[in-house]
Design a protein that fits this description.
With about 325 residues, the chain is mainly beta. It is about 5% helix and about 50% strand. It contains 1 helix and 14 strands. The termini are far apart.
């Protein structure tokens, strides 16, 4: 590990000691497509077996900068009004590596055609591995540096609720609830509270749009985020209506960061996407962030509500 990586690790360690300034949930620009990382209630997606994955490289050009990967699979069972999901999140920062496998259950309280209210719970294990042997110090043996390997594990859980109608999504969730009211340290994931409102327009024939606002409260830091996404279509002259082609999105955060999102519908149920983050904080302009996304929906009979309702519209977002 280079001196630049060591500097990054020391900075992160310093902020961790300030009770949570640096400790946060994994950062993802594409969470507007899939909210399950922060809100387990969102997996009650009808009609499909749902697969979502993304990878993220932060601060391009900085050795030891965060790298994130995320894999999620979920399915709604209409007869049980329940959804089941599995997820695995990994993050590497400097000499530390995090693995966070979770099992998710969500229950759809309502069973109506035009609105849904769901509660969700995720449970798993938070694992952090620190490998001090990756240090490349100027002094071959520095007593101030921990050269050994250290493994830290603890139970982990998230909870959430989500209301959704044809045009609105209102959500509230809390992550890492077992660390609630505890200060963060380098080896402790910290509790965060998420609140969001999304307005989604599905009326226009040739495009849809979504406008979202989210607030995230950490131990001593609150971040606000706004998003606008446009989904363009083309006419097919079929009974099923226009086909979705591609998405364009723009996100701005109160931490002076902006994201441009692009997603392409390769097929009616397969979407690939790319997000580019740029910080406007002085000194970080040259360190951009890139993220790739894959979303795949497999039509499922056990998840389908179409036999119950006269409409054939898939409105759940």
């Amino acid at each position: 590990m280079s001196r630049k990586s060591l500097t990054l690790f020391i900075i992160l360690s310093f902020f961790a000691g300030l009770k949570g300034v640096a400790q946060a949930d994994i950062s993802m620009a594409t969470h507007w497509y899939n909210r399950a990382n922060y809100n387990p209630a969102s997996i009650v997606r009808t009609e499909y077996l749902y697969f979502f994955s993304n990878i993220r490289q932060q601060w391009t050009g900085v050795d030891g900068a965060p790298k994130v990967f995320n894999v999620q699979l979920s399915e709604y069972v209409h007869s049980l009004r329940s959804a089941f999901g599995l997820s695995l999140v990994g993050e590497k920062i400097g000499i530390t590596q995090v693995y966070n496998p979770m099992f998710t259950y969500a229950y759809r309280i309502s069973n109506e055609q035009n609105w849904s209210l769901a509660l969700g719970l995720s449970a798993g294990v938070y694992n952090l591995l620190s490998n001090g042997s990756q240090f490349e110090a100027e002094t071959p043996i520095d007593p101030a540096i921990p050269y050994g390997k250290d493994m830290y594990s603890q139970p982990d859980a998230n909870v959430g609720a989500e209301f959704q109608s044809n045009n609105f999504i209102v959500a509230l969730s809390s992550t890492h609830i077992l660390t609630m009211n505890k200060s963060s340290s380098l080896y402790l994931n910290s509790n965060h509270i998420y609140g969001s409102v999304i307005y989604k327009s599905c009326t226009p024939e040739m495009f849809n749009y979504h406008i979202g606002f989210q607030a995230v409260k950490g131990y001593n830091l609150t971040v606000y985020e706004g998003n606008l996404s446009l989904r363009f279509k083309r006419e097919t002259l079929l009974q099923s209506g226009p086909r979705e082609i591609f998405d364009l999105g723009l996100t701005y955060r109160s931490t002076q960061q902006m994201t441009i999102l692009f997603a392409l519908n390769v097929s009616p149920n397969l979407r690939v996407g790319y997000a580019y983050d740029q910080s406007f904080i002085s000194g970080y302009n040259a360190n951009s962030t890139h993220e790739l996304m894959l979303e795949y929906r497999i039509p499922s009979r056990i998840a389908s509500t179409r036999g119950q309702f006269a409409t054939q519209e898939y409105w759940y977002h």
